[in-house]
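User:
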Amino acid sequence: MKPIWSGALLLVLILAVTLTVLSCKGKSNPVAPGAGADVTIDIVADMGSGAFGAAPETVLVNQTVSWRNTRGITHTATANGGQFNTGNIGGGTTSAPIKMTALGSFPYSCLIHPSMTGTLVVK
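Assistant: Predicted structure:
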């Protein structure tokens, strides 16, 4: 006859392994977002045309750009023509680097706060 506690112990073990696997989901990349970008633009305000650091920021074609949110609320940096989109950038975090492959001047804004605007010039 099997002791009752062995079934309970097995259930606890299965639950612990399942929770560990679920908590690691999406965390397989140990590199911090924004690590290794050629240029990082700071988000320094929650509204207005001065919300993104340098205005306009200039980079070279094929350089990578990340946006660092120095504020407490979530923002994005999204090109008006759809050339790039950081997705949501939480307070205190940095977006993944985006490679700029096209020459031009790219106005962008925060999708959450449209009055936040900037321009990225790619030479």
